[in-house]
Amino acid sequence: MKTDLDDTLYPSSTGIDKSIKKNIQLFLIHKCGFSESQALTLRVELFKTYGSTLAGLRALGHDITAEEYHSFVHGRLPYDVIKPDPQLRNLLRSINQRKIIFTNSDRIHALTVLDRLGIKDCFEQIICFETMNPNLPNATRPDQFPVLLKPSPDAFKIALHAANVDPRRTLFLDDSIRNVAAGKEMGLHTVLVGKTVKSEGADYAVECVNSVPQVVPEIWANQMDGDDGTMRRTKSELEAVLATAAVGA
Ligand SMILES: [Mg+2]
């Protein structure tokens, strides 16, 4: 199982996403000198075109390091709104398959959120911004290495390689429609989180990550199979037994 983190393992109703967007706009105003109205438009446009504001700024030649961007955007988030989720912890602990975080966020943010949720020890690996962009600190020009993030196919390739997983035997969870579509293109089994209706490339949709057992019971099928064989896997689609359960962040 490979899973996204933000707005996937905790709901967008926490308001963290809004705070991140606000901080990005403040970064554009205070660190890059854009006006307030330019900042809003630019954040949306850079996200659409380059995958993230940081990726867009560097591609356009702004010499901004990932560290200064992340410490500004994530460094003063109201993390106390993220509460421990014992139900999610029990759910994750009941999954025998490997569990990996796959997030565009930086490692410090990922660790902070996982710690707040009380699920840090449930994951064997965190694939994050630094994993996808190992050469960035060595760049001599901001546009030397393009910032790689989901939904770029190259970001998925790096993640699959880093985790050493077979996409056909991996469940991928994410709240982003475009990440889910990209994950499907890579051959992953996909769960769109936070929505009730499936988007393009989504095999399943759940409003809350805690509903995954109702929607994808196959994850637990092999461990629930009794000696009498009464429990049967229903979907060959899930390649019978998944090796990895990825929860997107
Ligand atoms: Mg997300």
Q: How do the helices and strands line up, and which of them pair or pack?
A:
Blueprint: E1 2-3, H1 16-30, H2 36-50, H3 53-59, H4 66-73, H5 86-93, E2 98-102, H6 107-117, E3 125-127, H7 129-132, H8 153-163, E4 170-174, H9 177-185, E5 189-193, E6 204-206, H10 212-215, H11 218-224, E7 244-248
Parallel strand pairs: 1-2, 2-3, 2-7, 4-5, 5-6
Helix pairs in contact: 1-2, 2-3
This protein binds magnesium ion (MG).
Explain this structure:
This protein has helices at 16-30, 36-50, 53-59, 66-73, 86-93, 107-117, 129-132, 153-163, 177-185, 212-215, 218-224; strands at residues 2-3, 98-102, 125-127, 170-174, 189-193, 204-206, 244-248. The protein has 249 residues and is an alpha/beta fold. The strands form two sheets. Strands 1, 2, 3 and 7 form a four-stranded parallel β-sheet that branches. Strands 4-5-6 form a three-stranded parallel β-sheet, covered by helices on one side. Helix 1 packs across helix 2 (36-50) and helix 2 (36-50) packs across helix 3. It is globular and about 55 Å long. It starts with a strand and ends with a strand. Residues 224-234 have low confidence and may be disordered. Magnesium ion binds at residues 4, 6-8, 175-176, 248. Magnesium ion binds next to loops.
Which ions and ligands are bound to the chains?
Answer: magnesium ion
Please state the overall shape, judged from the principal axes of the Cα atoms: globular
The residue ranges in which pLDDT falls below 50 over 5 or more consecutive positions are 224-234
How many angstroms separate the termini?
A: 12 Å
Proportion of residues in helical segments: 25-40%
Structural class: alpha/beta
SS elements, strand count: 7
